[in-house]
């Protein structure tokens, strides 16, 4: 074979080997399973900066985030040796669909005295004035509120008079219908959690101390991740030192980054501003801002809340202001709700700790007083113990 042909063959073989090796290297990356947060940052996006720290779980700011193995189950270890990063466990949250069905037993356990009590009273042979008084008392004890309780008693009196009673199935049906009317299925309970006008949805979470704000954000982040959304958290609770840590731990569990201040007692409005800026830059779907718990009668702190919202709105309007209320505090929650709503227009209520109280009637009282729907309910301390509020499922659980 002539030398020039031999050289040509050697060159072709070498080219083939180089191209093959390159292709194998490029194809080596693992596919990211749905729901796993990787990165929303484009290659040409600026790196985060300013007072707040963008904490992307398992990765320092800058390089791309680690990916998880395809088909990941709970507690999947995420690793990317090529970046020399530590292994970070990322959980796969439970699907949102049918959550209330899964958590129904908890609602039934704590609230069935209400439903059972009403059913027993209404099924009596003779419903005299004493029985109606007892029915009213049962409703008031469940925190339904005076006006709705009287309304319900009147409606039941009327229907029992016309339709008769005693047949347990019939009694159950009419009670169900009347309770459902009070809970009001016509209210819009959808959470705004999608990008619109080229920017993320901004969700602010407010409430008094210890009601479950941070926990709720952590649980909600999981809900959004389960829906395959990109989420970013902002730790504007700079009052309690451990709060930012608590929030970023929740985020890290599902691979969601947290923007927080590295300065103790930093201005919460500026942390919120940075978080929203990062969310816009990184093109996420939802930014959730945690705020410090504050008593509704502390004027300075309530003013601060108004300021946080105004500062956020320099960049993007706030789509949701979720007021978290602890269901076990009963009517006291109503006073809180009114004051909070005056300062930052509340768009939805999250009622936590419904697993630990027989006062499910508070749902009706709150919605009536504020005209704001209960959008989510907390039914336990577990990471997936938060469910969208479904009026029918709720009333059914009361009557179980
Ligand atoms: N049983 C039950 N406990 C809950 C629920 N939601 C939150 N908690 C618990 O309530 C406690 C307070 O929750 P946090 O999220 O720290 O409350 P917070 O409102 O952020 O507190 P501050 O930042 O101090 O105002 C925690 O122990 C939570 O586990 C719920 O739906 N059911």
From TrEMBL:
SUPFAM superfamilies with a match to the protein in the record: Domain of the SRP/SRP receptor G-proteins (SSF47364), P-loop containing nucleoside triphosphate hydrolases (SSF52540)
Region called Disordered, residue ranges: 30-75
Top-rank taxon: Bacteria
One protein family per Pfam: SRP54_N
Enzyme Commission number(s) of this protein: 3.6.5.4
Compartment(s) of residence: Cell membrane; Cytoplasm
TM regions (residue ranges): 6-27
Ranges of residues in domain SRP54-type proteins GTP-binding: 373-386
Main location: membrane
Protein topology in the membrane: Peripheral membrane protein
Residues that, per the record, bind GTP: 207-214, 290-294, 352-355
Subunit structure: Part of the signal recognition particle protein translocation system, which is composed of SRP and FtsY.
Family membership: Belongs to the GTP-binding SRP family. FtsY subfamily.
Function: Involved in targeting and insertion of nascent membrane proteins into the cytoplasmic membrane. Acts as a receptor for the complex formed by the signal recognition particle (SRP) and the ribosome-nascent chain (RNC).
Name of the protein in question: Signal recognition particle receptor FtsY
Organism: Arthrobacter halodurans
Lineage, top ranks: Bacteria, Bacillati, Actinomycetota, Actinomycetes, Micrococcales
Gene from which this protein is expressed: ftsY
């Amino acid at each position: 074979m002539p030398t020039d042909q031999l050289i040509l063959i050697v060159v072709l073989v070498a080219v083939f080997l180089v191209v093959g090796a390159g292709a194998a290297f490029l194809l080596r990356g693992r596919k990211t399973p749905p729901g796993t947060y990787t990165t929303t940052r484009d290659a040409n996006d600026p790196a985060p900066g300013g007072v707040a720290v963008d904490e992307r779980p398992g990765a320092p700011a800058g390089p791309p985030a680690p990916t998880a193995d395809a088909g990941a189950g709970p507690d999947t270890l995420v690793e990317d040796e090529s970046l020399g990063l530590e292994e970070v466990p990322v959980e796969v949250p439970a699907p949102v669909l049918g959550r209330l069905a899964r958590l129904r037993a908890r609602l039934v356990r704590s609230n069935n005295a209400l439903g059972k009590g009403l059913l027993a009273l209404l099924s009596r042979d003779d419903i005299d004035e004493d029985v109606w008084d007892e029915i009213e008392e049962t409703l008031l004890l469940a925190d339904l509120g005076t006006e709705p309780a009287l309304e319900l008693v009147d409606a039941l009196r009327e229907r029992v008079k016309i339709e008769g009673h005693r047949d347990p199935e019939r009694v159950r049906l009419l009670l169900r219908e009347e309770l459902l009317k009070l809970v009001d299925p016509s209210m819009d309970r959808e959470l705004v959690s999608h990008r619109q006008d080229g920017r993320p949805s901004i969700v602010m979470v407010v409430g008094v101390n210890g009601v479950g704000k941070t926990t709720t954000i952590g649980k909600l982040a999981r809900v959004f991740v389960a829906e395959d959304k990109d989420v970013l958290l902002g730790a504007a609770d700079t009052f309690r030192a451990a709060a930012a840590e608590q929030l970023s731990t929740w985020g890290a569990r599902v691979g969601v980054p947290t923007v927080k201040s590295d300065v103790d007692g930093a201005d919460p409005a500026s942390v919120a501003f940075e978080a929203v800026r990062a969310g816009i830059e990184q093109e996420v779907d939802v930014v959730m801002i945690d705020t410090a718990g504050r008593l509704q009668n502390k004027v300075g702190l309530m003013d601060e809340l108004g300021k946080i919202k105004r500062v956020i709105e320099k960049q993007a309007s706030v789509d949701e202001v979720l007021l978290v209320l602890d269901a076990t505090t009963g009517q006291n929650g109503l006073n809180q709700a009114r004051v909070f709503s005056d300062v930052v227009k509340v768009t939805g209520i999250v009622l936590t700790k419904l697993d630990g109280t027989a006062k499910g009637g508070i749902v009706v009282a709150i919605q009536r007083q504020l005209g704001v729907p209960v959008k989510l309910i907390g039914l336990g301390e577990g990471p997936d113990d938060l469910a969208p509020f479904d009026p029918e499922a709720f009333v059914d659980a009361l009557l179980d």
